[in-house]
Amino acid sequence: MRVFYNFDALKKALDSKSKEGSALGFVPTMGALHQGHLSLIKQASSENDIVIVSLFVNPTQFNNSDDFDNYPRTIEQDLSLLSGFENKVLVYVPEVKDIYQNGIQSGHFEYGGIENEMEGKFRPGHFDGVGTIVKRLFEIIKPTQAYFGEKDFQQLQIVKKLVEKYQIPVKIVGCPIYREANGLAMSSRNERLTLQERQEAALIFNTLKLVKEKFGTKSAKEVTEWVQKTFQNNAKFTLEYFEIANENTLTTCIRKSKKKKYRAFIAVFVNNIRLIDTISLN
Ligand code: AMP
């Protein structure tokens, strides 16, 4: 594993390492790495000749400055976790000017409406920031395959639309959610929970598993009301949203159809720390 702190240095290494037809895998992250990130890197490593992992806490995708300020930054620990990877893994820690050449601001992106649902609704500007950073990184790195977690399922769908819209020649690979032993989806934000909160946050995935079971016999509305009640009865959690949505359009399921694929999405605050999770329902 080698680390590069600006794009010029990374480009030199890429030019000397890659040959005509090399498969170049890319795993963009905001650092504070955990096993979920590592599962993406392992998959990329097994499917490519070279893998680039970027570590960059992207300011424009935070709609809340406290969240940006408090986002964990653990670069030493990240590099130590990555040091176990073989030489084909190159770590890129961009300088701000590599990404934002004309000041720190995002472009505006539209993807046929999916950007306005859920995370888009509750985190205004978030997907403009995601579009800006992902498009820029794709333009400079030019990967053949890029790996994104299904934990951020809406982001994964948006990135697929982004490459389609701008005809960027990269295959987007979705990777399964990696969970802690109690089922809590791994997240850099879990670091900010106390041990007790981390244990109690198992409620999120336990609820999603029951949602999946209930959705077999009940309507989306009934299941949604049940989830809202479950969280109302628990003072430690504040439910921001729960949605059962069409997996492709991400619009709320009003009436179930056997022909469509559905997914449940949830965002919950535990002591001001925002956690999200999702589960496929059929
Ligand atoms: P982040 O650093 O949070 O921006 O995440 C970087 C990438 O890792 C994104 O594609 C995330 O969806 C993915 N990721 C984060 N947590 C997990 C997890 N628990 N399982 C699988 N992928 C994840």
Describe the structure in your own words.
39% of the residues lie in helices and 20% in strands. It has helices at 7-17, 35-47, 65-70, 75-82, 96-99, 118-122, 126-141, 153-165, 195-200, 202-215, 220-232, and strands spanning 2-4, 24-29, 50-55, 89-92, 145-149, 171-175, 237-246, 262-270, 273-280. Helix 7 packs across helix 8 and helix 10 runs antiparallel to helix 11. It is globular, with a radius of gyration of 19 Å. The protein starts with a strand and ends with a strand. The mean pLDDT is 96. The structure holds adenosine monophosphate. Adenosine monophosphate (AMP) is lined by residues 29-30, 36-37, 39-40, 148-149, 151-152, 175, 177-178, 185-188.
Task: Please describe the topology of this protein.
Layout (H helix, E strand, L loop, with lengths): L1 E3 L2 H11 L6 E6 L5 H13 L2 E6 L9 H6 L4 H8 L6 E4 L3 H4 L18 H5 L3 H16 L3 E5 L3 H13 L5 E5 L19 H6 L1 H14 L4 H13 L4 E10 L15 E9 L2 E8 L2
Parallel strand pairs: 1-4, 2-3, 2-5, 3-4, 5-6
Antiparallel strand pairs: 7-8, 8-9
Helix pairs in contact: 7-8, 10-11
Bound molecules: adenosine monophosphate.
Number of strands: 9
Structural class: alpha/beta
Low-confidence segments, given as residue ranges, are none
The succession of helices and strands, N to C, reads EHEHEHHEHHHEHEHHHEEE
